[in-house]
Amino acid sequence: MSVSSTSSKSSFLDRYQQYLGEFVYGGIDGSVTTFAVVAGAVGAGLDSAIIIILGFANLLADGFSMSVGAYLSTKSELDNYDKHWKIEARNIEQFPEQEKERLQQIYRDKGFGESQINNIVETITSNHELWVDTKMKEGLCMMPEQKSPVAMGGVTYLSFVLIGLIPLMVYVWDYIWGFPADLFMASCVLTSLGFIFIGFLKTYVTETSAIKGIIETLTLGAIAAIVAYVVGDVLEKIIIG
Prior knowledge:
This protein is mostly helical. It is 84% helix and 0% strand.
């Protein structure tokens, strides 16, 4: 493989790997919340058709809500960076000497010698955009957001729906063609496989043990399902009797 093709593959992976975290957390939320709805409905003794309705309503509505939140969060970070960038650019235009002195002090605090500072500052201040970018990074500790708000929202919604659909699959299958086995047990098995998959992916984001990531995700899903099942069962007995 040539150096150029290796570099292209690496840049491709770097470009899309930054969205992996959003895919993982969207998938976790999707599977946990949908499975909780299924477990709660089963605990309440609801019909399969009702479980499908509640499950899909939760899946699509909550997924959209999460995607909007991811979009607005990323958009806010971009807007905040742009706002401060414009402020720094205006300060440099209006008070160049004071801003140059502040830049010198930044590198002085880092331990550079005066001759080095002068060379660095002269190089930076000769380019207006570089000057502003350096002030943003070194002075305000702010870096430009590389992620697209639209992509963040889209990835969140996609993962939420794809992984969150798993607990409902057997109920949809049963509604259309019939299913010979215990529906809730089959849903538990499929959802556990989904948790294992998303827990494994999570280890790439957190850079932790695969076993630890899988166990954490499985435990989270199990707790959510148990709580939902118990609440559904208790409310069914209280309300319906």
